Amino acid sequence: MEIPINVLVFYLVALVVVGSACIVAFSRNIVHSAFSLLGTFGGVAALYVFLGADFVAAVQVLIYVGGILVLILFAVMLTHRISDIQITNRTVGRIPGLAAGAVFLGILVYAIAGTDWAKAKEVAFEPTTAVIGNLFLGDYLLPFQIAAVVLLVALIGAITLSRKEIKE
Amino acid sequence: MEFTVQDLIQALLPGAIPAPVGYPLAAILVAFAVLSAFVAPLAGVTSWLERRVWARMQSRVGPNRVGPQGILQWLADGVKNIQKEDIIPASADRKLFLLAPYIVFAGFIGAFVVIPFGSWLIPADLNIGILYLLAITSLAVVGILMAGWSSNNKWSLLGGMRSAAQIVSYEIPAGLSVLTVIFLSGTLSMQGIIQAQGWAPQDWFIFYNPFTLVAFFMFFTSALAEGNRTPFDIPEAESELVAGYVTEYSGMRFLFFFFAEWGNLYVIGAITTTLFLGGWQIPATIFGVTMAEHPLAKGVLEFTVFFVKSYLWVLVAMWIRGTLPRVRVDQLMAMCWKYMVPIAFVCLFGTIVLLVIWPDGNPALSLATLGFTTLVLVYFMWRVVYQIMHSRPELYLKPYV
Predict the structure, then answer these.
(1) Considering the domain A1-84, what is its CATH architecture?
(2) Do residues B248 and B372 both lie within one domain?
(3) pLDDT tens per residue across span B143-155
(4) Per residue in A32-78, pLDDT tens?
(5) Which of 208-267 (B) contact A at CB < 8 A?
(6) B171 closest CB neighbour out of A66, A73, A129
(7) Which residue of B has its CA nearest to A3?
(8) ipTM score for this prediction
(9) Domain that holds residue B2
(10) DSSP per residue, A86-125
């Protein structure tokens, strides 16, 4: 049986994404969880490459691996005795947790089954950067600007929270 | 002539092997060959040269025993380190400790995919080349944090933290300076950026206008900081942190970190050359010979031009390391956020304004910028000669010992 190499690579990448996501969720060591995100973020970037979205793939690595992952690692490493804290929520037991999980799984399965999955067309590996730029500054200018304002607000909020009040 | 490594693989692949199996194998073989035949000697010889250059700057001799003038010292270092015991501290986080050098190394070696050594000598001319480069080099931060944390050592952790904070901060002025160049070239592809420049200095982006000249210095300084080079080597400051995040590493794993650091020095030079110094551009005709008629000579000449230009910045980085003291942590952060980021923004907006006024550039302005830089360089040389003549130091100019 002839398996095309790109299908093989796709499943390999999917395995890396799902596998490291499982480590993120199930690992007892929170630092291991944080480092496993590297596999998830990198794998998602590879999936973008499969979809022919070169710009998004590079930005995914740049922002998520270079920025967000490092921030998460900082937060985990700089939190005092983070591994000693009991993470399990005592007030809500395992049974309500399982029930909530089951309901959520049901919703997800229902949504996936209900979606009319279009068969992936021949992916065109063409430059997308200029098209994305034109769309951002043309058709989607308002959402783009709103996202920028939201980020600015988040920045100002972070500064307000972290700065020390200087008393005279 | 359009020719890439991929075409070479396809041409050399025997028909008997099916393409899905043979192609990845051949790609791995080519990558291995390039790694051992170009990158390893490059990083090795750089490590030897760096030690020799500092030694001369500090009136020492440096390694001069293995081979002529010690040029084979890096091979001896490699053999020595590969024989050493691979010590893993008992309280270290074993998996992450073992993995960390590979991640740092992958981030460094991935950069070579888009480095244009000539008009056709490039592994892959991605249309998002420079963005890919910024993205792949950020992998090293994760590896450094991993090394720092998993060593279970206060110095390692502090070194890793410092390094990550430094790299994340200096990515911003570096990115803004790169953006200035992207505005001028209108493309993210490395070859596209080079093709937007010319072979003559006044056609390079560094002299495009006064703002790009400043952006060049912003970029080079940030690149040195991102590569953890002196004067920004506080992550491995020997006087405070033993060796920072590499403290607990030994043998070949230790060498991997420094392999990446020395190789990275060349990558910095190559990116600087591509973005600001016209890359491999050579004149179309040299002494009446049309270069397009001699593809081989053209390729060799382009590679030489690119290599010399980029290695020049490796030597400048050595010179800086030999002369400047290390900055403090707070000075480092203040310099990035209070000075370099605002200056980089000014460069960006200045370039945009000039682009609106002269969409195709202004040759007179470029020539004026080039002239100004030349004047500063001449004045600098004159000061050096003046100091040597008047302070009468005992000069010992014999280069070989």
Answers:
(1) Up-down Bundle (1.20)
(2) yes
(3) 888 888 888 888 8
(4) 888 888 889 989 988 888 887 888 888 888 888 888 888 888 888 87
(5) none
(6) A66
(7) B20
(8) 0.76
(9) 1-83
(10) --S-SSS-HHHHHHHHHHHHHHHHHHHHHS--PPPPPPP-
